[in-house]
Structures are given as structure tokens and as C-alpha cells.
């Protein structure tokens, strides 16, 4: 990746152009979304989206290179300095997550052409790519902006595009899922906006860096406490924290496979980023954990999510719904790690944020390959599929083993660092809970494995063949990354360490 960046810089990238990277990534995505709408050709739109996401991936990598040593990039839109103007503020935290989002977007764009043929009418393919690029642009905007109100704007862009993508399929249930997501998403965004309004009333600024400076002087007021509560609840709805998760199972289940992959890998991670940004930067550690005592709220919610969602996953008959409830449980791990409010806790949360994106991306892609051929979401219909689609099934097994936390997989690294963080605070009951939830994961992953491997193919089903190459390639890439990062996790561990130092200091 570094060689590609250097090659492009030598050919046509000037220093001035590099300084425009924070906004350039958004311009490329939005411009290409408009081009997809103009051309009205599914194939051309797919190529445009692929190019846009590839360029975005390169820029995101360059942003990591520019921030990995602790630098913070500040870009003022229109040369208006904050707090009057809008600032893009990029550090190692949001640069790394932006790279993750662009990586998943690029792989999903490779996966999508065959995937959408079954669910999206051909005359709407260009609309799919337009909405997809808008969704990505909104997601990147949320990550890179340093303005609290702009977060809301980009949140709405991303959310509206996602509602359209979920409802774009031919299954009527996707419309219901989209509507449920719209209702919950609107409630979450409204809560967030009300909280931001309270902050503006108390400080007169919307710039996050300014808020971090000004809030300590007014942190004892009721308005700031109310703002904190509204923002936390709004973001938790977007994150699908347990008890606020009701939109997620249907959204994952009835969306087109390509969109299920993207939102499973990225949507909740972006919300988690916002939670981290507000808890540790905007409001600050002292207010969030020593005055508001948010840990006493999010830790019980995390525990409930881990326990109940894991158990619910066992009883699902729809394979996507199994993994949807699994995702809610996995989000509980990240929330649990944040509630520890320690360097090791932040480190484990960030490691699992990245690894879970790769794990669920791999699993949902492998499921998408198998569903594409089988034509059903029911677990029972996957009988004998391991012999008919060995590559897709092998990728599913790798993702499943990583989800459980088997050694030499990325998931093991996540569990190890979470247990280490809990051990440092002598949280023995929570350690047992994490280990027990891994055993529960064995049950629902094994159920799919047993049906696919040990049972013969259904006689009522026509013999199926392996998925198309454009679907297999990104699936294999993600499966390989789960193994590679299980063997050598140093890149992610070092990044997580830098982020914990950024948020909590030395």
C-alpha cells in the first residue's frame, strides 16, 4: 500500500494536493455518486463505485501514515477557522476507522455485482451504487468532522442512504426492516441533536475541540448532564446497544447480502467511535466516568447484551438472524471494554472493533455466497453445502472459529486482550462471563457446521456449485486476514495502543 501511495505521489500528487486529503475523500465519493446517477448503467456505476472506493482506500491509508506518530490534521473548510468555520480533525483514531470503512466498502463493491442481481431489479442497479456511495460518504464524514452538528448532518446522509439500500430489495420484508430502522434511527438522531443543542446553548460553539476546552467550566450544570444523557442515548440507539437494538436483526436479515455485509462490519463501529469520542474527548474522562459515572450504566447493558443476545442466537432458524444476535453480543464486548475506562480496556475495545469488522465481514460474505446458490436463509436448507461449496464454507468456518476466539485467529487476540483488561481490575465474574459466552458461540456456530458438513445435500434441492469468482475473492481476502491477524496482530495492537494514549494520555 505504501508503494502505491509513493508511486502516485511521484506521478501527480503535489504537497498541496496531499493537504486536501481530508476533504478529497468526500469529494470523490459524492462526485462518483452523482456520476452513477447520471450514467444509469449498472455496470458503469459498479466500475465508478469500485474506482471511488479504491481511491478512498488509498487516501485513508495516507491519513493513517500522516497521523500514526501522534499528529493531528486540522482542515478548515473554505479557510474559515473554527469555531466559526467547519473543521475536519483527523487523528490516529478516526483515520484508522476510516481506513477500515473504506476497506470494507471496496471489498463489498467487488462482491456486489452478482449479489444484487437476485434482489435488486437491473434498472435500479445504478441507484444501488449511488445510495451505497452516499452511505460511505456519510460514514466517512461522521468520522472525519470535528464539528458536533456536522456529525448530525453526515449521520442523516448515511442513514437515509442506508434506509434506501435496505428497502431496495424485492422482498417486501425489507421495506418493513427499512421502516423499523428509519423510526429507530430518527429517534436516535433526534436525541443526539437535542444533546448538541444543549451543548451549544451552554458554550456557544459546536467545534468538538472547543467543547472539550469549555465544558469543564460548566460541567456542574444540569444542562450539560442532560446533554450528556441525550447524546449517549442517541448514539447507543445507532450502535444497537442491547435494549435499544430492535432495528438490527431485521435490517441484517432482509437487506441485500452486500448491504448486510457493510452495515454488519461498519455501522455499529462508527457509532462506537462517536461514543468513544464523546466520552473521552468532548466530555472527557473525568466528567464521563467520575461525575456522570457512565460505567455503571453501560457495563450492565453490556453484560445483558452478551448474555441474552448470545442465548437468542442459539434459537434462531434464519442464518442471518443468528449472526445478527451474535453481533449484538459482540458489541457488548466492546461496550464492556470501554466501561473499564483504562488503557487496557480502550486497547481491547479498539482491537475488537477492527477484528469484529473483519470477522463479521467474512461470515456475512461467506453466508452471502451460500445464500446466493441455495436461495434460502433457513439454516436447515444448508444441509450438505460444505461438499458443494467447499471454498465458501471454508471461509465461513474460518470466520466462525474467529468469532468463537480459537487461537491463531483474529478473534482470539480480541478475547485475550479483553480478558487481560478484566484481569487487571480483578473482574473475575466478567472473565467467566466472556469465556462462557464464547462457549455459547460454539453452540450456534457448530449448529451451522453440523448441518452443512455432516448431513447429506437435500434431495429436494438442485445441486449447487461454488459462488462466482467476484464473490469468492473478497470473501477469501477477509478469511485470510482473520488468519494473518491471528498470527501477527502487531499492526492492530500498536494502533490500539496509540489510540489509548491519545484518549487517556500516558
Fraction of residues in helix: over 70%
| Average predicted confidence as pLDDT | 90
What are the low-pLDDT stretches, counting only 5+ consecutive residues below 50?
A: none
Estimate the strand proportion.
Answer: under 5%
Structural class: mainly alpha
What is the count of DSSP helices, taking H or I runs of 4+ residues?
22
Topology order in helix (H) and strand (E) letters:
HHHHEEHHHHHHHHHHHHHHHHHH
Backbone shape: globular
Strand order, main sheet: write it out: 1-2
Distance between the termini: 31 Å
Rg over alpha carbons: 22 Å
Major sheet characteristics:
2 strands, antiparallel
Q: Count the beta strands.
A: 2
Description:
This protein is mostly helical. The protein has a domain at 294-506. The protein is built from 22 helices and two strands. The chain has helices at residues 2-11, 15-19, 21-39, 42-67, 92-115, 125-144, 148-167, 172-203, 208-214, 222-239, 248-254, 257-282, 284-291, 295-314, 319-339, 343-374, 385-388, 390-404, 410-424, 428-454, 469-487, 490-504; strands spanning 73-76, 87-90. The protein has a two-stranded antiparallel ribbon. α6 (125-144) packs antiparallel against α7 and α12 (257-282) packs antiparallel against α16. The longest helix is centred in the middle third of the chain and has 32 residues, at 172-203.
Please specify the SSE layout and strand pairing:
Elements: H1 2-11, H2 15-19, H3 21-39, H4 42-67, E1 73-76, E2 87-90, H5 92-115, H6 125-144, H7 148-167, H8 172-203, H9 208-214, H10 222-239, H11 248-254, H12 257-282, H13 284-291, H14 295-314, H15 319-339, H16 343-374, H17 385-388, H18 390-404, H19 410-424, H20 428-454, H21 469-487, H22 490-504
Antiparallel strand pairs: 1-2
